[in-house]
Amino acid sequence: MPEPSTPSFLRPAFLTAILSAVGSLAVSAVFVLAARGSDDLSFSGFSRSSARTWLVSLGSGLDAGDVSLGLVPVGATLMCLAIVAVTTQWVVADPVELPAFAAATAGAYGVVAGVTSAASNAGDIHTSAVRAAIGAFIVGGIGAAVGAAMRHKATADLWPTPNVDARAVLRASVPAIIAVLASSATIVLALLVLHVSRAGDLWAVLDPGFGGGLALAVGCLLAIPTLVLWTASALIGPGFALGTDTSVDLTGAQLGEVPGLPIFAALPAPGEFAGWVFLLGLIPLVAGMIAGWRVEVRDREDLLTRVGLGAAAGGVAGLALGLLIAVSGGAIGPGRMADAGPPTLTPLLVAVPVMALGGALGAVLGHYRGDRATKPGVTSSSRGARLWKRDKSPSPDRRVDQT
After folding, report:
1. Residue 184's pLDDT is what?
2. Which residues cross the membrane (predicted)?
3. Residues 127-148: tens digit of each pLDDT
4. Strand-pair partners of 125
5. Mean pLDDT, all residues of the chain
6. Which of 3, 56, 380, 396 is a good FRET partner for 245, with 20 to 30 A between their CA atoms?
């Protein structure tokens, strides 16, 4: 009786998970070494600090006595995801069964993160093994799927369903998500440029030195995606907090004492905003309209069908944004810093109906302005010719025929 063969995807999946974890730990070690500078570190202390940095990047959180860090550093998480994707492209030389490979990689990566969390806990400093394993599972699965699909040009296998309408909804939701995030990134960049002198002053006060300055610069860059998501929350409506009695939304900014990091120079000046700023709240609605406009209905001309698909596309975009915003908040320190970022559920509850409404409106516009204008056989010249014939007085021969 022949022995059962090992599935072909298991070996590359385990290898991808292990190499990705090693690569992420190496990057974390460089960051810790630069941040600590010449401080004396034992090998065990250095190893634990590097492991904790990686785990926090995956969303494990960190508790050190009275200090709690619950915020997910989105930029660092994206970097870990990129490491997994690049490692996958290097490891997976032959085509594999994509869903099975991604699931196996995610499971192995999650186990490695959970074991690392348990091994790195010491004294009053510990990370959550459960959160680390869940975060690693998500990051490892997405990174492995994207990397393998790009390596073998099999991006079509990334679709979660073969349903044509579902694919059309998902495809149309992407431009809406990009529109909101791009608008938020533009606002953050503009505020950074306007307050660059303030950022310089904060940098000078910290005086981090060369190694510490390098680590601080990297940390500020990795914090930009988090600020972008917080700004998106402000555009959607709920805004965000940065400590007790400190909030920012489209009506104004109420700022108390904030962490003295140069990246926080992008925060607006305290006070009530100008009235026109409130118009920025229309960006999510317009983004939803983009989704509804771009949804593909193929050969169907039913308005209700298109409106339904457009609303679904806008709603999916709102759902994705709401989930991203939800994970971007959390504690960043003790006391008043225990509450930072947007509220957990409010952006989701607002973004879904607003962008779904925008999707429905965009679908209506697309139906009357897009589809009808591009019907087969209907050109601008033919429409002009029919209009010209309708307005033109009948010829003599036609008058005879009519009599």
Report:
1. 95
2. 12-34, 69-92, 98-120, 132-152, 172-194, 214-236, 273-295, 307-332, 344-365
3. 999 999 999 999 999 999 999 8
4. 64, 122
5. 83
6. 56
Q: Which domain holds residue 20?
A: 10-158
- The rounded distance, in Å, linking the Cα atoms of 99 and 97 is 6
Whether 3 is covered by a domain: the verdict is no
Q: E strand or H helix at 261, and its extent?
A: none
CA distance to 33, 208, 240, 246, 286, per residue, from 36 (Å): 5, 10, 31, 31, 46
Q: Are residues 177 and 105 in the same domain?
A: no
Indicate whether 402 belongs to any domain.
no
Same domain membership, residue 363 and residue 277: yes
- The domain tally of the chain equals 2
- Residue that the structure tokens 């400093």 belong to: 125
Which residues are CB-contacts of 95 (< 8 A; sequence separation ≥ 6)? 152, 154
d(CA 220, CA 35): 13
Which of 158, 184, 202 is the C-terminal boundary of a domain? Answer: 158
Residue 284 and residue 187 share a domain: yes
Q: What is the pLDDT of residue 329?
A: 83
Average the pLDDT over each of 73-77, 102-106, 165-169 and give the range with the smallest value. Answer: 165-169
Q: Is the dihedral of CA 67, 56, 47, 106 positive or negative?
A: positive
The residue among 353, 325, 114, 164 whose CA lies nearest residue 234 is 325
Q: What is the phi-psi region of residue 330: left when phi exceeds 0, alpha when psi lies from -120 to 50, beta otherwise?
A: left
pLDDT in tens, 280-327: 999 999 999 999 998 887 766 678 888 999 999 999 999 999 999 998
Q: Measure the CA–CA gap between 16 and 1, rounded to whole angstroms.
A: 32
Q: How would you classify the pairing of strands 340-341 and 67-69?
A: unpaired
Q: For the chain, what is the total number of helices (H) and then of strands (E)?
A: 13, 8
Residue 39 lies in a domain: yes
Q: Are residues 306 and 175 in the same domain?
A: yes
- Terminus-to-terminus CA distance in the chain, angstroms? 96
User: Within a domain: residue 379?
Assistant: no
Longest dimension (CA), the chain: 108
Residue 144 sits in the same domain as residue 170: no
% of the chain residues with pLDDT over 90: 39
Residue 384: pLDDT over 50: no
